[in-house]
Design goal:
By secondary structure, the chain is an all-alpha fold. It is built from 14 helices and no strands. The termini are close together.
Length: 383
């Protein structure tokens, strides 16, 4: 196992460098450069645009620019963003990435739980009306045209019912007299969510050996107390109304992404469960007289999780890239929208920085998925 991980890490490094090389030359192959964005500005002369190219190093040969970028990257320097000059790329990523991570990680985790349990129940209800209805709805949501569905959600819940705000990250009028910036409140919300997640995870581990009744009582009671404490602490804080405003803006995009994502996981779980139910060990469990719930949850569902966990790990890794379409429709200032704008104006350092983060997380996700297989299926061994 140890040497397998070492080999995979070497493969990841090689693949990562190859990804960056191909991406860099593809971006450079685009016609024009960043200075072209100022062609329509009548206040800039041709000489001033040439000066911009010199400032950003665009006047140097392609090979020299590439070697300079790769050398800086190996030292952890992602360069200076052209469009956000003089801000470093890493600073822009650290500002925008948390917004995308919260939006898509939340929807991914919710989609996993809802999709897995729904798919498990559908496979168990094989041939019944519930399965046909849910499968049809799942296929419809999974194949829906995302921009249309996002605009439909905005029209229904934001414009018609006025339950949620239309787009943006915060309400500007409310934040005029805010004691801190929105990023500060957002960061504290992330910290609160992280601490709660760690405590809840520890609670699940501690109570897993208890009887089912005690386990359920302690878990639900503990989670309820933790959430009540967190809500009470934020409600008593002067930042509470601002945190609530951010949450209010998050609900609609999270709901939209969750409805689209959970359907695919539900169908994947259903198909995997149907394959697992044909295995001999499921028949043996039935022959032993085990309860149907135990056969479904302990025997069939665990082995059916392999492709579902793979999809979940990859979705978590690519969450940094976010959904360009989703963030554009909801005017959500995250990484997806940032990368789209950077590519449009040929801000190569900003685009390469985003690709580097997304690519590295995706490659590491493959390694994490392989390791998780060992825990989910004891039959798997790596040399």
């Amino acid at each position: 196992m140890f040497w397998y991980i070492i080999r995979r890490l070497i493969q990841i490094i090689f693949t990562f460098l190859l990804l960056l090389t191909i991406s860099y030359f593809l971006l450079e192959a685009m016609p024009g450069d960043f200075a072209q964005a100022f062609l329509e500005n009548p206040n800039l002369t041709a000489a001033q645009r040439d000066a911009l190219r010199e400032i950003y190093g665009l006047d140097k040969p392609l090979g020299e620019r590439f070697l300079s970028y790769m050398g800086a990257l190996l030292t952890g320097n992602l360069g200076i963003s052209f469009q956000y000059y003089p801000r470093p790329v890493i600073e822009v990523i650290m500002e925008r990435a948390p917004r995308t991570l919260v939006l898509f990680l939340t929807s991914t985790v919710i989609s996993f739980y809802v999709g897995f349990f729904a798919g498990k129940l559908l496979a168990w209800q094989r041939g019944k009306a519930l399965e046909y209805t849910a499968t049809l709805g799942g296929v419809t949501l999974y194949t829906v045209f995302t921009p249309w569905f996002g605009l439909l959600m905005i029209w229904l819940f934001a414009f018609s019912l006025k339950w949620f705000p239309i787009g943006q990250f915060v309400t500007p009028v409310l934040w005029r007299r805010a004691p801190v910036e929105a990023n500060v409140v957002f960061g504290r919300m992330l910290l609160t969510a992280l601490v709660l997640s760690l405590i809840i995870f520890g609670l699940m581990l501690i109570t897993r050996r208890l009887t089912q009744r005690n386990r359920v009582v302690l878990r639900w009671g503990g989670v309820t107390l933790l959430l009540a404490g967190a809500i009470g602490a934020w409600g008593a804080s002067e930042l509470g109304p601002y945190a609530l405003n951010i949450l209010h803006h998050m609900v609609l995009p999270i709901l939209t992404v969750t409805l689209i994502s959970f359907a695919g996981l539900m169908l994947l779980t259903r198909n995997s469960m149907l394959e697992t139910l044909r295995e001999d060990y499921v028949m043996a469990a039935r022959a032993k007289g085990l309860p149907e719930r135990v056969i479904r949850d302990k025997h069939a569902a665990r082995n059916a999780m392999l492709p579902v966990v793979t999809a979940l790990v990859f979705a978590l890794a690519t969450a940094l890239g976010g959904g360009i379409i989703t963030e554009t429709v909801f005017s959500w200032p995250g990484m997806g929208l940032t990368l789209l704008e950077a590519a449009r104006v040929q801000d190569i350092p900003m685009t390469m920085g985003g690709i580097a983060f997304i690519g590295l997380l995706s490659l590491l996700a493959h390694l994490v998925a392989d390791i998780l297989y060992l825990f989910l299926d004891p039959r798997i061994r790596y040399a």
